[in-house]
Amino acid sequence: MNGLRRRLHALWRELLQEHTAPGRLAAAVLVGCIVGCTPLFGLHFFVCVALAYALGLNKLVVYGAANLSIPPMVPLLGFASVQLGERLSHGRWLALHRSDFALANVRALAKVFFVDWMVGGLVLGAAIGVVAGGLTWAILARRRTRAGAAGDALGQAIERARRRYDGLHPKYKWYARMKYVMDPCYRAIVPLVPPGAFTVDLGSGLGMLPVLLGVVGDGRRALGVEWDAAKVACGAHASRDLDGIQVLEGDARDADLPACDVITLVDMLHYWDAGVQRALLSRCRAALRPGGRLLVREGDPAARGGARWTRFVEGVVTRLGWNRGPAVRFRPVAELRADLEALGFAVRIDEVAARTHPGNVLLVAELPHG
After folding, report:
1. pLDDT tens by residue, 122-157
2. How many other C-beta atoms lie within 10 A of the C-beta of residue 292?
3. Is 291 left (phi over 0), alpha (psi -120 to 50) or beta?
4. Dihedral of the CA atoms 128, 239, 159, 325 (nearest 10)?
């Protein structure tokens, strides 16, 4: 009996202590809130454990966050999810009232409006999870020492870069703060930009990569090109007083590309069909100096498992308007590599698929010197 008790205590300690970095715990809260808003009653526990295992998150926190769907909250969450799902799917509201979602009716309504509830629940849960996860991350991050927060030189630069987004609207501020910590692309890309290099970041979003390159310094200069004016304003705010760093409004398909050493296309090509992608890659090739480097981060449509979730999320945020691309078209990585090699690049493919970003790769395409 004592041996069993010790094993249970050890298991409990392991569950409490696994994946407790602030970013991981924030992601666990986000995932749990999403699951909790779905109509998968009776399956939440199993879904939470499976997702926590697949994404490398704390199982207790994921399931704890999923319990936002406690009985008093179920009618409100169900009503909001079904209405939101119907609006997103069919562009209309349903003639329903919150009182229709009394606990006695919930399971029957979940069957009738399952698709609407699922679609709306995923979006509603993500919205709640971003807020709750952001607060979780903020509280835990404040408790870290500077050494723990930084960890190394690049970690220190990331810490300084994310603080430059303070003062913005909370949705931009917290998006930038969490993405710097959770997205592995920054740690993968910055070492590939040599000191003194001039980088053009197409589809720059909030200008997070140019800002980080400016913070890293060593003569690195960067231009971010983004067609969403609100995001350009955020990038301009964050890049203020950084020498050689600009974020400007423009369409990557026809913007003037100055001669440069590095061009980055991070989660951007998949908004366009193959013809537009090839034309854009050709324009990048013409702008790069000899020995230049083109860095393309994309999702691999052949990847399975959690990678499907990555592609689903990209489609949802595009439809909701956070990303302004016209559509989401992931092409096989082999096709992208062939396009780059046809332009004279030597190409290698690095995996940048952290647990929170499964299925992502970085195509590192280099031109010969001279």
Report:
1. 898 899 989 988 888 887 776 654 444 444 788 889
2. 22
3. left
4. 40
**Contact in structure between 245 and 211 (CB atoms under 8 Å):** yes
Residue 10, H or E segment: helix 2-17
Distance CA 295, CA 355 (A): 21
**C-beta neighbour count of 370 within 10 angstroms:** 5
Q: Which residues, including other chains, have CB under 8 Å from residue 169's CB and lie 6 or more apart?
A: none
The pLDDT of residue 301 is above 80: no
Domain parsing of the chain, residue ranges: 2-144, 162-366
Residue 303 has pLDDT above 90, yes or no: no
| Single-letter residue type at 307 | A
- Amino acid making up residue 195: P
For residue 303, the 8-state DSSP code is -
Backbone angles phi, psi at 250, to 5 degrees: 180, 160
Kindly report, residue by residue over 56-82, the tens digit of the pLDDT: 888 888 888 888 877 778 788 888 888
What confidence score (pLDDT) does residue 331 get? 82
CATH code 3.40.50.720 for 162-366? no
* Cα atoms in the Cβ-side hemisphere of radius 13 Å centred on 106: 22
Query: How many whole angstroms separate alpha carbon 187 and alpha carbon 199?
Result: 16
Give the tens place of pLDDT for each residue, 13-26.
Answer: 655 566 677 888 88
> Predicted confidence band at 315 (pLDDT cuts at 50, 70, 90)?
low
Q: What is the pLDDT of residue 140?
A: 77
Inter-residue contact 202 to 268 (CB < 8 Å):
yes
Mean residue pLDDT of the chain comes to 82
Angle at 311 between CA 51 and CA 325, to 5 degrees: 145
Q: Are strands 260-266 and 288-299 parallel, antiparallel or unpaired?
A: parallel
Helices (H) and strands (E) in the chain, counts: 16, 7
Beta-sheet pairing, 245-249 with 260-266: unpaired
Residues whose CB falls within 8 Å of the CB of residue 310, separated by 6 or more in sequence, listed in order: 299, 357, 358, 359, 360
Section 260-268 average pLDDT? 93
